[in-house]
Amino acid sequence: MTGLVQAFGSGAMTNSIADIPQARAILAIGTNTTEQHPVLSLQIKKAVRQHGAQLIVADPRRIELADFATLYLRVRPGTNPALLNGLAHVILAENLHDQAFIEARTENFDAWRAIVDKYPPERVSRITGVPADDIIRAARLYAENKPAAIFYAMGITQHVDGHQNVLTVANLALLTGNPGVPGGGVNPLRGQNNVQGSCDVGGLPNVYPGYQRVNDEAVRAKFAAFHGVEQPPPRPGLTLSEMLPAAKRGDVRAMLIMGENPVMSDPNSAHVRECLAALSFLVVQDIFLNETAEYADVVLPAAAYAEKDGTFTNTERRVQRVRQAFAPPGDARPDWQITRDLARRMGAPGWDYADPASILAEIAALTPIYGGITFDRLDGDGLQWPCPDAAHPGTPILHTMAFPRGRGLFSPVQHQPPPELPDDEYPFILTTGRVLQHWHTRTMTGRVGGLEFLAPDERVEVHTQDAARLGIADGDWIRVTSRRGSVTARARVFNRPQRGVIFMTFHYAEALANELTLNVFDPVSKIPELKVCAVRVERVPAPEGVSLES
Amino acid sequence: MIQSDRIVRTVCPYCGVGCKIDLHVKDRRVYRVTAPFAAPPNFGKLCVKGRFGHDFLWHPDRLTTPLIRREGTLQPAPWDEALDLVAARLSAIKAESGPDAIALLCSAKCTNEENYLMQKLARQVIGTHNIDHCARL
User: Fold this and answer.
1) ipTM over 0.90
2) Do A15 and A184 meet the contact criterion of CB atoms below 8 Å apart?
């Protein structure tokens, strides 16, 4: 999100899911859309099949969406900025850019162009592995068919230069005048069902609700007056990736974790366990005793989504009503009650919320982008922020007239190699992701019989030629080892991954990719490099007691 | 076919698309999941998780009581005792080591209202900006 804030002034999906079929061209890069945002992918398929849109898919794996593409680019992991610079180079060389938009609505074009000039298709082809002709063709497809929409997800952001990756995406949209129009825009697909909302309401160390910065004096004064206490110092707090080492050092002594499972979801699991074990006091609020709760001093039982009222905000900024279907089991309680009751016990004044509606009213009063959002107005379709007042209809498309920062900013970005590349000892690249049937650390989907039936265990994706060389057949057990750890799982041998690259998920505790991944972080966004690390692969005998048929 | 008592419109708990779902409910069970055809963002469509992925709600592993670690194992405890303990320990650590010795994680799986309260707990009650969640994962 930091990348789009730099380029546009606002870090959210610019367009709406419903306007995807209006796109004449779609670039999907670093998004396995059919598995990770399946219902949104139906709109992309509709744009292609019913409306004739040109679809370009760029991904290291030949994902299902590639079957619908005019052009599939099999890009090497960790080389997106070079690819996107290459597309921009071709667009400029062939004079396909939108000069009027660039002059009216952007800045820093010349400085940016000087860098892009260094990325002709031949050089980009050497870096990315994509044939030069395909780079030229992709650039033409994207620039000649307007409006053109870009979709991306963790394949762009989960890199040590993820922030820079996002800037190159934004540059391409600015170059072609695609922001602010139906069927266009720059569309980061948010992973979790309420990751957009938890960012919106201030669940980040650098901003209060509504992205009001903690180091802005006027904002501090507003919250000091509202909270009735002096505010913390005007510098950002710790991100998750900084909390863990701070715990190990003893700087952070207590953690309160609500509905998260960092032991499984964060890179280098052994390191995460060590950090959590060093805490003096750990509280976990969850619906199940997850892997992180093993380190907890107190576990508080929470209500699941169907057991409480409230709101979620989806990837297109749509605030929607969550409604209680039945009561939580046993003594479990909604997290809002748990947090309220804890704050009261710590002596906080004014925590007399009777229900989620009264909490949303307080959010609206303090958060300009949510200013007009109330429970009453959400009974229909929901409302897309910004929705500043009670009469405002919401905002389906951002940046139609101007960017929040004024002009869109071109940002020069150079290709940088990933921090850990294959060598003789660790000759493969490991890239990670998820599958359709499971969700994140499987806390929920692992307890749904039908989904477990469909995807019961980890299957490491290995290219056919690599497998043949290593004597690995489909279904064989293999050991995958990195500098951080080693896991054993069965192989799935086919040609979806590219040669030299294997793929794993972080769904399964018994074969967890995050035992292997690299805890190196983007310096701006603090996102870990989860898409590239170096590993060794070898065939091993089946573990004892495991049936060959299972 | 089991006839449900009522239909509750809410939002799917999985990905960021945020599909509207109608839960067909009887007692503490969801017997069927449908989606309204005329409403965004999903216009009646659901994936395998949204359609069939709800059985975890009544799984026997669900936590039903607070747990406090005593002599190395987590043991059931009443709410008052658990919340008093958390409040006392957090207050003590804040007094000994300052508010920045405490860090909180809110959740992309919880509601806006719950996340809002968690960041308010951090900033107003504890006095730290050490609040984050798995937005980056």
Assistant:
1) yes
2) yes
